[in-house]
Design a protein that fits this description.
By secondary structure, the protein is mainly alpha-helical. It has one domain. The chain is 65% helix and 0% strand. The protein contains 14 helices and no strands. α2 packs antiparallel against α12 and α4 crosses α8.
Length: 310
């Protein structure tokens, strides 16, 4: 069985595995819903008492046995079903995450125009309810009576939303009507699967080199967005809302449940990936140190992403 080229490759791969959409869009949303800074208190408690121990257990399990999430259960065959469950979960995650990457590729390609297609409401797919910030002029809007203005506000949809729902996805009117295959999305989905294949074609030898870019580039993007965000009006108000704790919500059991689910979702415990990646470590590698570094890096990224979003 092969090994990682060096320990940095394993740490970067594990960080890239743990740090993802859950850090950037799910953690800030949970902070917003569960009392701002007060949510971080149960979040870090769950990290210390649930996240890091489970993370360490999976790394040590995979490293000791040098087997993936299926073969590792030879230690106790009665739990082999757990390995198959991990495999099914990882398969589902691979499918839907590639759809997200496909959407990212699509928007990357269509944004290479002088005027973005979701800027105005003058496109064939737009409805009369569409109201963009850059459409029309202020004087004509001021002439509208108050009743009409209220009705328009209630039904208003943005050009970006209509572009997404009516053009990119071309949503059908009923679940029984499957609609047609969107060839641009199908092409982007094919590109995303090809990229994944090229990253994994030689196992850890190729994936270990790819992570030098894929694990570090999100931090570059987050930093660019953070610098841009703090220059906008009202940035300090958003950050203060993010940091100011609403202590009354900390007594709510749902807040603690959200904190626990976010730790499991973010670290990727029980999905099989950690066991498999650790199985390529050398037998005497200090996996305890790695689990501490990766877990803290993952949660620090969530907090940093919260600053960016708020």
């Amino acid at each position: 069985r092969g090994n990682w080229g060096n320990q940095i490759e394993f740490v970067l791969t594990s960080v890239g595995y743990a740090v993802g959409l859950g850090n950037v869009w799910r953690f800030p949303y949970l902070c917003y819903r569960n009392g701002g800074g007060a949510f971080m208190f149960p979040y870090f408690i769950m990290l210390v008492f649930c996240g890091i121990p489970l993370f360490f257990m999976e790394l040590s399990f995979g490293q000791f046995a040098s087997q993936g999430c299926l073969g590792v259960w030879r230690v106790s065959p009665i739990f082999k079903g757990v390995g198959y469950g991990m495999m099914v979960v990882s398969t589902y995650i691979g499918i839907y995450y590639n759809v997200v990457i496909c959407i990212a590729f699509y928007y990357f390609f269509v944004s290479m125009t002088r005027v973005l297609p979701w800027t105005y409401c003058s496109n064939p797919w737009n409805t009369p309810d569409c109201a963009g910030v850059l459409d029309g002029n202020v004087s004509s809007r001021a002439a509208l009576n108050l009743t009409h203005l209220l009705n328009a506000t209630q039904k208003r949809t943005s050009p970006s939303e209509e572009y997404w729902r009516r053009y990119v996805l071309d949503l059908s009117d009923d679940i029984g009507n499957l609609g047609e295959v969107r060839l641009p999305l199908l092409g982007c989905l094919g590109v995303s699967w090809v990229v994944v294949f090229l990253c994994l074609i030689k196992g850890v030898k190729s994936s270990g080199k790819v992570v030098y870019f894929t694990a570090t580039f999100p931090y570059v993007v987050l930093t660019i967005l953070f610098v841009r965000g703090i220059t906008l009006e009202g940035a300090l108000t958003g950050i203060m809302y993010y940091l100011t704790p609403q202590w009354d919500k900390i007594l709510n059991a749902k807040v603690w449940g959200d904190a626990a689910s976010q730790i499991f979702y973010s670290l990727g415990c029980a999905w099989g990936g950690l066991i498999t990646m650790a199985s390529y470590n050398k037998f005497h590698n200090n996996c305890y140190r790695d689990s501490i570094i990766i877990s803290i890096t993952n949660c620090a990224t969530s907090v940093y992403a919260g600053f960016v979003i708020f």
